Amino acid sequence: MRYAVLGTGIVGRTLAAKLDSLGHDVVIGTRDPAATLARTETTPTGVGPYAAWQEEHPRVRLSTFAEAAAHADCLVNATSGKASIDALTAADAAHLDGKVLLDVANPLDFSRGFPPGLDPVDSDSLGEQIQRAFPGLRVVKTLNTMNCLVMVDPGRVAGEHHVFLSGDDAEAKKTARELLHSFGWPESGVLDLGGIETARGTEMLLPIWLRLMGALGHTDFNFHIQGAGGPGAWGGH
Amino acid sequence: MRYAVLGTGIVGRTLAAKLDSLGHDVVIGTRDPAATLARTETTPTGVGPYAAWQEEHPRVRLSTFAEAAAHADCLVNATSGKASIDALTAADAAHLDGKVLLDVANPLDFSRGFPPGLDPVDSDSLGEQIQRAFPGLRVVKTLNTMNCLVMVDPGRVAGEHHVFLSGDDAEAKKTARELLHSFGWPESGVLDLGGIETARGTEMLLPIWLRLMGALGHTDFNFHIQGAGGPGAWGGH
């Protein structure tokens, strides 16, 4: 498949590298490719410059949001939540109509410092905002409830755990489910919550996720809904 | 121990019955005991009149919030979130100072219909509001992330799952932990998130809890943080 991953941060890079390793044709979209490639700084959280990562992943191309979206059969929103609507607007609705968008972003709000809050929250969600703003997109909110290394390698967390699906388009959720299986998520690890409105629930996991990270001192954990399936539903364990 | 359970709904009754069965001296607090006992209706969710429940639990007494608080060594807030501050105000701060309060309530906001939202949310929590309003109380937010039948009988959900603790007083959290053990929660099933501020995280689990209830069609489920402890941490399984 032809994928456009929107966003050049650690989440976008991790997903792009995984998709590339699975043989997909991957373009990363950014606002200004020349500016992205010119950056040399490492972020405070230790994420190095994009150009160095690009050298290690020569098959993955970098282009504008619009070029990436035009190229793709399926898109992944890995921009920061605050930038997502602008990124998709730049991608151009004409390049989005009818396509599946996996929305893995969270609308983190750092205006009150760390840990961030959410905006929107409770009465709305980023997933719903994107679906309303781009009604031709088939939005599936997924993978936004865990660290990006767990997204593409669920085996990092021993035992059963869940990835959620929220979306209004059953076919798009089927596409998402197949991609998740290719990442190593078993059938019983994928929990379909219902329509895109249920993205409110998964985005609101972020506050406890951040506090769990603080309490546990690592990010190799994930939510498991105990009682969601029969015993032994996860891969026969 | 002498317990005051504030709130006569299904959560308060379930916790009071469990505490009574464990040999504790339990008083349920309500605004107007005569009015509570006079009610004859069954709620739309099937909760029968308090008086009928009272007959089945003759050792548990019903009294005003203030009398219940005066009686107790330890309090449980099982009122509706919107009524909690008023209930504790009626209980009288003089009867609260120095005591442990287990806050199992959630600030559900039904103003936009079902499923309810939360108020406060994200930038504050009910647990923090209570701690601020009654600085002499030693508030521990706990048990608010599951159905009340699971609270007092964690074995209803097969396998490992978690109950969270949030609070600023280490001794009060120890008291809470001991009570949870007496309910059947093993040591490894109790996850201390930190200060009362972390109640924001657990209260914000309610939106996905409500949507999971819808997707799964039952309430015998709970959150398990996979990766929070070593394998087999839960009771040797």
From TrEMBL, chains A, B:
<keyword id="KW-0560">Oxidoreductase</keyword>
<protein>
    <submittedName>
        <fullName>NADP oxidoreductase</fullName>
    </submittedName>
</protein>
<dbReference type="InterPro" id="IPR036291">
    <property type="entry name" value="NAD(P)-bd_dom_sf"/>
</dbReference>
<dbReference type="InterPro" id="IPR028939">
    <property type="entry name" value="P5C_Rdtase_cat_N"/>
</dbReference>
<dbReference type="Pfam" id="PF03807">
    <property type="entry name" value="F420_oxidored"/>
</dbReference>
<dbReference type="InterPro" id="IPR051267">
    <property type="entry name" value="STEAP_metalloreductase"/>
</dbReference>
<feature type="domain" description="Pyrroline-5-carboxylate reductase catalytic N-terminal">
    <location>
        <begin position="3"/>
        <end position="107"/>
    </location>
</feature>
